[in-house]
Design brief:
Two copies of one chain form a homodimer. The first copy, chain A, is of the alpha+beta class. Chain A has one domain: (Glycosyl)asparaginase (Glutamine Phosphoribosylpyrophosphate, subunit 1, domain 1, 4-Layer Sandwich). The first copy, chain A, is built from nine helices and 15 strands. Chain A has a nine-stranded mixed beta sheet with strand order 1-15-14-3-7-8-4-5-6. In chain A, strands 2-13-12-11-10 form a five-stranded antiparallel beta sheet. In chain A, a hairpin with a 5-residue loop joins strand 12 (302-307) and strand 13. In chain A, helix 1 (32-54) packs antiparallel against helix 2 (59-72) and helix 3 (116-126) crosses helix 4. Chain A is globular and about 55 Å long. Chain A starts with a strand and ends with a strand. Mean pLDDT of chain A is 90; it is low at 1-9 and 183-202. Strand 6 of chain A pairs antiparallel with strand 9 (234-235) of chain B.
Chain lengths: 340, 340
């Protein structure tokens, strides 16, 4: 059963929550077929993770399975369908974290692994490091591919017509803005895209998942292509532990999406963990506080999904919409994009 | 006046605190001349920052001035004197953050800016991004050099005989370990160096500074060459906002040094901020808690310096020693390496 409804907070017994990015999702551009594509991928991701947990599997396996589905869906800005840098290149970021021993792995600026989230896991499991970036990360991927079961692909695999068109539009708007003002206007969004363009349908594309398993262990995973026309080498919040991704069995698991720079400056996902730990807040109160107190200090917009070890969850955003969904123990699925 | 003493916590009226790394600092290898070199650089760094604040300058300018001195000192593992990757390359990381508007900038995997901390500032001030890495960061440095006053140098500038020797020793120990065990032993330290070698004198080399100015505004800066023989592309905690660097006028400014991966997993510097905000702890209590509760969960070792907007400070570590120092309003300087 799939129920679509206004989803903010949920009661107990959630198993897995996913997001596919928050932003100025245009109701005009989100045609029925595209909406179906988006929702189908959310549901498929939720079911992939749920199946693992139902069989007694761990929350880390579940969030990775869910994020892989969203990475493979070209409609989302992660894996295939990733947006392009200013110079037309693929530079993807991903992170995973498990809440039992606080193990984490992350990669940034990669272009050769079909599922970036699997490289994040390989870095966690096959190195003493947490974060590898750029060339070093790509080389490590190729080296560890066989052992870690990574699917190595050509960078072309990730390219989509939509991503190319979005970059084209961004560059045109940028050159127009430069002609008028001499430089990029500053503002809330990366690269000034908000000022230049009408909503593109997925401004803040990032995908993520948080889950809790039978042992009440939580985990989080996040993956992204970044922002349209980003500067080469730019790393947002997604692969940064504490910023876009965090998990701790003592508190919660969190995955963020949005204008990453603000999420970094407020260490949003670790802040969420602190609010549970030190203020005794529920996940719902925590999500409230993040959007009412934490983010307004720097002006950031985006979304956040949270789950605690008891299966309480929250999905919150301060944008027009957020692709999101939750699956419960009994297999019930809810997906949503807008408030209503 | 320079007073050397056991330094843990301090009273009011501190202006600037610096560290030059914490680790298994060998008393045998730290000869008198080397100790003098280390302490002189600490004092010079403290005075550079103090001069700025005394003249009414800001804490951000002060921490950058202090860190530049330590980057220029070849005895410290940052800027000139940075340790080398497994493949013998320079890959430096740095971050800055100011506590008023929570602006931050960071760079990772760079090799062309004499003072990496100045590139971190340029990223904060001349982009909409927080973190640039690798080639993209190096290219941005070259592009913005004139406007931002960056000193571009050849990677050879950073190389020192000591760094080359340390890498040689690391690779020898690694190959020996591989012969015996077939693979790198896992354990607490990056690249298994702790297991392979006797203390090298600066295991966890990182330099950092925290400061408060007349307006009670705090700032933090951290800079590092990383760990000896690190995998290419590895990024530690130093350039990660919330992990190795954080600043917030509502709480404190923090800079960490140590086995970075553990500091990332616990988001140590943001955790310190949370302890002040939500538990009402003093900086001394906060430092205690980080080393008694937070870090033991993952087993990390290293050091941490903190300063709050009232000029209370803490310098704490759980290693044999930490290069460190503090300067007070009246210009009194304290520097220390060991407990006594």
């Amino acid at each position: 059963m799939v129920v679509s409804s206004k989803l903010a907070f949920g009661g107990r017994d959630a198993v897995l929550v996913v997001h596919g990015g928050a932003g100025a999702i245009s109701r005009v551009k989100l045609t029925k077929p595209r909406e179906k594509e988006a929702r189908d991928a959310l549901e498929q991701a939720l079911r992939a993770g749920h199946t693992i947990i139902k069989k007694g599997g761990g929350s880390l396996d579940a969030v990775i399975a869910a994020v892989k589905v969203l990475e493979d869906a070209p409609i989302y800005n992660a894996g295939r369908g990733s947006c392009l840098t200013r110079t037309g290149k693929i530079e993807m970021d991903a992170a995973v974290m498990e809440g039992t021993a606080l193990h984490a792995g992350a990669a940034a600026g990669i272009n050769c692994v079909k599922n970036p989230v699997t490289l994040a896991r390989a870095i966690m499991e096959h190195t003493h490091h947490v974060l590898l970036v750029g060339k070093g990360a790509n080389r490590f991927a190729q080296k560890v591919a066989k052992k870690a079961g990574l699917d190595i692909v050509d960078p072309d695999y990730f390219m989509t017509k939509t991503a190319e068109k979005n970059l084209e539009r961004f560059l045109k708007a940028l050159s127009k803005a430069k002609k008028h003002g001499g430089r990029r206007p500053s503002g809330l969004t990366a690269d000034g895209e908000e000022q230049h363009e009408k909503p593109l349908g997925k401004k803040h594309g990032t995908v993520g998942a948080v889950a809790v398993d039978h042992h009440h262990h939580v985990a989080a995973a996040t993956s992204t292509g970044g922002t349209v026309g980003k500067d080469p080498g730019r790393v947002g919040d997604s692969p940064l532990i504490g910023s876009g991704t965090y998990a701790d069995n003592e508190t919660l698991a969190a995955s963020a999406t949005g204008y990453g720079e603000h999420f970094i400056r407020s260490a949003v996902c670790h802040e969420a963990s602190s609010l549970v730990r030190y203020k005794g807040m529920t996940v719902a109160q925590t999500a409230d506080r993040i959007f009412n107190v934490t983010l307004p200090r720097t002006g950031g917009d985006g979304g956040l999904i949270l789950i605690d070890p008891q299966g309480n969850y929250a999905m919150r955003y301060n944008t027009i919409g957020m692709y999101r969904g939750v699956i419960f123990k009994d297999g019930t699925v809810l997906t949503a994009i807008y408030d209503s």
